[in-house]
Specification:
Distance between the termini: 45 Å
Structural class: mainly alpha
Order of helices and strands: EEHHHH
Number of domains: 2
Number of strands: 2
Strand content: 5-15%
Radius of gyration: 22 Å
Low-confidence stretches: none
């Protein structure tokens, strides 16, 4: 669970000693496979009630179930080989990503086909920051990775 932001009290110029009449916080919960966003939401509300905060209003903005592909599926190995060929480097496979996306919905409705997320960022790209950037070489390598992946996929179908 991450506290993404908090608002409360006087934030203008100078100092003021006062008790704020309200406060607001935005939370983010990153789920793992098997957790249900609605259940986690209810747990948070119950926790607040149990600890004397029944006056706190909790609103669910959205919720996504987590998804994890079967790591032994041949497509996962193909994606790793294609990345190694494109980037000329060892590849690190992570079973989960901290990002949110529609993988659960696609995986469920496509019969649990494997899903692999790839990216073209670098360690100093400042992902999701106002000064997010990408180097041209990383973008080009990402295109090469997709070419190798699609070529390998089409060959696997024959």
């Amino acid at each position: 669970m991450t506290i993404c932001g908090i608002e409360s009290g006087y934030t203008g110029e100078g100092a003021k000693t006062l008790l704020p009449k309200s406060a607001k916080a935005k939370l983010d919960c990153r789920l793992v496979p098997g957790q249900d966003p609605e259940h986690i939401f209810e747990c948070i509300k119950q926790h607040l009630r149990t600890h004397g905060f029944s006056d706190v209003q909790v609103v669910l903005i959205n919720g996504q179930k987590a998804y994890r592909s079967e790591s032994s599926h041949p497509f996962i190995a193909l994606a790793a080989r294609a990345a190694k060929a494109a980037y000329h480097n060892e590849v690190v496979l992570r079973p989960n990503s901290a990002g949110t996306g529609p993988m659960y919905i696609f995986g469920k409705w496509l019969g649990h086909l494997p899903i692999v997320s790839t990216g073209v960022g670098w360690s100093e790209s400042n992902a999701h920051a106002p000064n997010e950037s990408i180097r041209l070489k990383d973008f080009e390598d990402g295109i090469v990775h997709m070419v190798y992946l699609l070529t390998g996929f089409s060959q696997a179908l024959n």
